[in-house]
Design a protein that fits this description.
It comes from Cairina moschata. The chain is α/β, with parallel strands linked by helices. It folds into 2 domains: 259 residues, Spore Coat Polysaccharide Biosynthesis Protein SpsA, Chain A, CATH 3.90.550; 143 residues, UDP N-Acetylglucosamine Acyltransferase, domain 1. It is globular, with a radius of gyration of 23 Å. It binds guanosine-5'-triphosphate. Guanosine-5'-triphosphate binds next to strand 1, strand 5 and helix 3.
Length: 445
């Protein structure tokens, strides 16, 4: 069956991809509320968030790999409202070569919402006779059981049903997600509520869907209704706004209980990647999966090499001293240098960074081209919830909970310089900053 896949990559967050932003000597800020839409700062200054490396490869490469594995996949479309971007174009060219499948970026003229974009580009999605297509949110990490969803879809709704990938959360966590009430026998979705204020269901929407072309009729109904309302508004106010259509609130809520929407529940790993902190958590999940899917990506203990503990990814161009100890859950990027006696655990070190002799880096993201001086200690607090909680897997959002910074991982933006022998604890350092002393629980602007 001819299939396509659409990956919703969204667009720039506030302050994203605009190059260097710091260096003005504004000094430290207290841990107070941060503006909304900045959860991935300061890392998204340098690359669009979907290209941020998770377990050694760009975040969306995990989606692309999963889609390319499905038999019958004809094309993968990345849909977003980023301006044409050099890094994105380079990534697409490389990915097409590696996965031998057409991969294109389609740019929305404005943020059209999770359903508005696919509706706008429906002709491109269906071109070539696609009989069904997947839609995947870029900001989730998962095993992406797409083949299983396909088989489930063929058995439900007379092959005309739409399938949502679901997982189970605890009662409190579920309130932050789309909640699904389904018929226990048929798995038909009877109610769908996005981020309810009181408990609805423990089954939540994973942001991965399988649709047939019939979905466009349903989005089209919402579109027509909105156009009529907009026309009325425009005539009374004299202004027009872009028509945003959301799959979750506008489409699924209306489709529930109509024999068309089904949930396929997975026990596999799943997590959102909203904040930079959750990228470390997602890295751990993907590194863990590599032992089955990509053992070649996991570093091994070798004579004359560094000590590897647990799952570690090291880019082939990185230079690691044989007395360093790395892991578990460490990703070392391109061209990184790691000196003698260095210890790194639960961290992501981005390309070009240098960890000088005897530094200790724990629960930290070290930005591109940053330098950490000898004997310095850069440390965050693990954001993991209670390990005894069976639903811990999906709670990785503690860095900016409720828009506030909570003591959590440390993030160094790009080209940050940390001098020798200082201690940086639970702090965020914006790009191009040269620190002169230790700091704790601060945002260094
Ligand atoms: P929040 O918790 O409020 O962030 O909501 P959410 O988890 O439901 O996420 P949201 O619906 O904002 O986004 C889900 C996915 O769709 C993410 O990968 C976004 O990047 C992407 N996305 C969101 N809005 C748009 C849009 O207007 N166009 C496109 N192409 N993608 C979008």
């Amino acid at each position: 069956m001819p299939l396509k896949a659409v990956i919703l990559i969204g667009g720039p967050q506030k302050g994203e991809c605009r190059g260097a932003a710091g260096g003005q000597g504004l000094g430290p800020a207290p841990l107070t509320a941060l503006p909304a839409g900045t959860r991935f700062r300061p890392l998204s200054f340098e690359v669009p968030k979907p290209l941020f490396p998770v377990a050694g490869v760009p975040m969306v490469q995990h989606h692309i790999e999963a889609c390319a594995r499905v038999p019958g996949m004809k094309e993968i479309l990345l849909l977003g409202f980023y301006q044409p971007h050099e890094a994105l174009s380079r990534f697409l060219v490389a990915a097409q070569q590696e996965f031998r499948i057409p991969i294109r970026y389609l740019q929305e003229y404005a943020a059209l919402g999770t359903a508005g974009g696919i509706y706008h580009f429906r002709d491109q999605i269906l071109s070539g006779g696609a009989e069904a297509f997947f839609v995947l949110n870029a900001d989730v990490c998962s095993e992406f059981p797409l083949q299983e969803m396909l088989e489930f879809g063929q058995q439900h709704g007379d092959a005309h049903g739409f399938v949502i990938l679901g997982t189970t959360a605890n009662r409190t966590q579920a309130l932050n997600y789309g909640c699904i009430v389904a018929n226990a026998d048929t798995q038909e979705v009877q109610h769908y509520v996005e981020k309810p204020s009181t408990f609805v269901s423990e089954v939540i929407n994973c942001g991965v869907y399988l649709f047939t072309p019939a979905i466009f009729q349903h989005i089209g109904e919402v579109f027509q209704r909105q156009q009529q309302e907009l026309a009325l508004e425009e005539s009374s106010n004299g202004w027009q706004r872009a028509e945003v259509i959301r799959l979750e609130q506008d489409v699924f809520t209306a489709l529930a209980g109509r024999g068309k929407l089904y949930v396929y529940k997975t026990d596999g790993f799943w997590s959102q990647i909203k904040s930079a902190g959750s990228a470390i958590y997602a890295s751990r999940l993907y590194l863990n999966q590599y032992s089955k899917t990509h053992p070649e990506r996991l570093a091994q203990n070798k004579p004359g090499g560094p000590v590897i503990r647990g799952n570690v990814y090291i880019h082939p161009t990185a230079s690691i001293d044989s007395t360093a100890v790395l892991g578990p859950n460490v990703s070392i990027g391109e061209g990184v240098t790691v000196g003698a006696g260095v210890r790194v655990r639960e961290s992501i070190v981005l390309h070009g960074a240098a960890l000088h002799d005897h530094t200790c880096v724990l629960n930290t993201i070290v930005g591109w081209d940053s330098t950490i001086g000898r004997w310095a200690r850069v440390e965050g607090t693990p954001s993991d919830p209670n390990p005894n909680d069976p639903y811990a897997k999906i709670d990785s959002e503690s860095l900016f909970r409720d828009g506030r910074l909570t003591p959590s991982i440390t993030i160094l933006g790009c080209s940050v310089t940390i001098p020798a022998e200082v201690v940086i604890l639970n702090s965020i350092v914006l790009p191009h900053k040269e620190l002169s002393r230790s700091c704790k629980n601060q945002i260094i602007l």
